[in-house]
Amino acid sequence: MSTSVIGAAVSRIDGKLKVTGAARYAVDHPMDQIAYGVGIHSTIANGAIARIDTSAAESMPGVIAVLHHGNTDPLFRPANPFEHDSRAGESRPPFEDDKVYYYGQFVALVVANTFEQAQDAATRVKIEYQEVKPLVRLSDAPPPSGAPARNYKRGDPDGSFKSAPVQIDFTYTTPAETHNPMEMHGTIAVWNGNKVTLYETTQGVVNHQHVMSEMIGVPLEDVHVISPFCGSGFGGKLFPWPHSMLAAIAARKVERPVKVSVPRSLMFTTVGHRPFTQQRVRIGATKDGKLVSLQHDVVTPSSIIDAYAENCTEPTPVLYSCANVSAQQHVVHLNIGTPTPMRGPGTTPGLFAIESAMDDLAIKLNLDPLDLRLRNYAEMDESSNKPFSSKHLREAYQKGAERFGWSRRNPKVGSMRDGDLILGWGMASCTWPAGRGSAEVRVRLNADGTARASSATQDIGTGTYTIFAQVVSEKTGIPVEKVDVVLGDSSLPPGPMSGGSTGNASVLPAIAAAAEDAVNTLKGVAVKTEGSPFFNADAKTLNLTGGRLHTQDKSPDSGVPFGEILKMRRLAGIEGQAKTSPDENSHKLSSHTFGAQFCEVTWDPGIARLRVSRWVTVMDAGRIINHKTARNQILGGVVMGIGMGLFEETRYDQRNGKPLNNNFADYIVSTNADIPELDCIFVEYPDLNLNEYGARGVGEIGLTGVASALTMAVHHATGVRVRDLPIRIEQLLA
Ligand code: MOS
Predict the structure, then answer these.
(1) Does residue 1 surpass a pLDDT of 50?
(2) Which CATH number is 436-581's, of 3.40.605.10, 3.30.1490.100, 3.30.365.10, 3.40.50.720?
């Protein structure tokens, strides 16, 4: 009874709040005397503001202020923008000067009594620009110069490529993508004297607090960040963006709470995106498909302001066994907003290129794609020469192949049919690094028999609230429904950012240790309380089972509910607290999550209709803490991957850098009609190197491998190799 709650498919403890609309998201928090800030954005991508005339707007009804660079003291740059806990999405604070670096940059903010008044007045602000021709396409930018953002090499990749009997040399591209969570970015800022409270939607309340403290110039303890719910982030909410600073300075100026929402159109410009990638992959191989050389050369853009590098080469030296490998990353700077991590950053577009090149090799050698991967299976991490902490990818391939029926695949293009439909089958490997950070958690046991766990981490929709309750329940026997969990508040003991699929592995040990600390305190109270059945007993002989304190030699039924002990001592509750950090020894091993994707598409050549018809995903993600929320993460990743393969692309107007499809009608994401029944299996081997539960993260890996599996399936059905995402029907008509 006490351990079964770990791994169980427990429903989200916050689910009811969400489906009834009671959960408050960032801009939902009611506030007296609130004013509304509406941002005005640049309509050029490069240049400067020559003149700004706010007089007409200022005379509009309800308008309180119009802020811009000419009437606002400059804010501050973050101290260490790329250090943990101190990273802004865009390191240039808004309104720093008259410069414009990208289309959609905030250049002014109208503050009014109502949203409608602010919106109306925003249309009356006249701005004249000095425009300079922007750099929008890769071909506009000067070629990358200077040291690459990453430069990895082992062996002699160039020489071994030249002498290899079989060579593959293709360039693969992935487009810019926009995160587009359902809940758009938004901030409510409220000042109380010199202290500010920010209601946010963020993947890191602690990082947000640090960055805002630095950028608005307010001591850390005077900045309070609250984000109890997050309508998804996908990476776009890891770091603070300019609207948050604008809300803070506007509220300080007008001495009222100010709400600033980012409209959907500006979700495409000023809150990050996944940059497009251009990736050349060269593989040298033997005639039986053994890799002898792998070279991966990547160019990705960043903004003019920041040097964000989409780390496409992260998996390159790790995924397959190969003696000669090089991986190079170059960054060019364009007049587009600063990119930011998006679900599986780097690895997702990087794997598209590597896995596509493996498929190109399989096609060239007429080898089965799965067989080719098995021939190059990496038994250890050849980039670090460390053993993997836990790798069961071979079993994942096998389970997936069995479930899918892969052995029935006829490799001949267009050879498999279902009536008039041509079937295409593809597969791919998945990987994502498994990390863990430090976390601090407080657990309180209350005299009424309930418990509370709290930490300044947050639940971004992944199920963090629920796993907190599961671990407290496991350690105390208090049922999940009696465990209250409080997250998303920077005043709590500092917890980790929800990023990089590290949250789960980071918080689990801290919750467990804090619960154990609380239980030990409880035992100490029990043996010192007169009238307690355990008075003067040795605390070490006591157990807490099912919420009842008892001596180890007797059954839990013989014991006393822990609340009774607290009441005898006239205590309302007792607390435990713990901070845990990764074990030093964990670095001796290489920890990654692995998986395999198998998919089927149907192609109707008569009407050029492509559909995804079957999907099997097998994940090797360590022990699964909650089968319901973990499965939900993987399926969500696959859905997003199908979007990456077939639909998603942010397209910029070459003249002015404007995202042409900055809305949900034109930026296409997967809908229910695009998605077949998805099958998700876990091969569960606890990865005890990472934490005592053996759990890795599952937030991002579901998306990896999806797009190349799709292009392989499309080739199998149609004979067309797509190397530039997304797959378009017109490419298949050729
Ligand atoms: Mo993730 S891209 O670190 O939210």
Answers:
(1) no
(2) 3.30.365.10
**What fold characterizes domain 31-133+183-232+237-266?**
Aldehyde Oxidoreductase; domain 4 (3.30.365)
592 CA distance to ligand 1 centroid (A)? 16
Mean predicted confidence (pLDDT) in 40-47:
98
The count of other CB atoms within 10 Å of the CB of residue 74 is 12
Q: Is the CB of 341 under 6 A from ligand 1?
A: yes
For the domain made up of 277-435+587-733, give the CATH fold.
Aldehyde Oxidoreductase; domain 4 (3.30.365)
DSSP state of 456: B
> How do the domains of the chain map onto residue ranges?
31-133+183-232+237-266, 277-435+587-733, 436-581
Q: Distances from the Cα of 17 to the Cαs of 5, 22, 24, 228, in angstroms? A: 22, 5, 9, 11
**Quick one: what percent of the chain has pLDDT higher than 90?**
96
**How far, in Å, CA of 487 to CA of 455, rounded?**
5
Q: Is the pTM of this model over 0.85?
A: yes
pLDDT of residue 145: 78
Give the pLDDT score at 80: 66
pLDDT digits (tens, 9 = 90+) for 157-199: 999 999 999 999 999 999 999 999 999 999 999 999 999 999 9
d(CA 622, CA 685) in angstroms, rounded, equals: 5
Give the three-state DSSP class for 401: helix
Residue 583 pLDDT greater than 90, yes or no: no
State if residue 342 touches ligand 1 by the CB under 6 angstroms criterion. Answer: yes
State yes or no: is 700 an active-site residue. yes
| H/E segment holding residue 443 | strand 439-446
Choose, from 183, 314, 382, 700, the residue flagged as catalytic: 700
From CA 266, how far away is CA 245, in angstroms rounded?
16
Q: Do domains 277-435+587-733 and 436-581 have the same CATH topology?
A: yes
pLDDT of residue 271: 98
**Gap between the Cα atoms of 13 and 686, Å rounded:** 25
40 in Cβ contact with 108 (< 8 Å):
yes
Q: What separation in Å is there between the alpha carbon of 345 and the centre of ligand 1?
A: 7
- 623 Cα–ligand 1 center, Å: 21
Mean pLDDT of the chain: 96
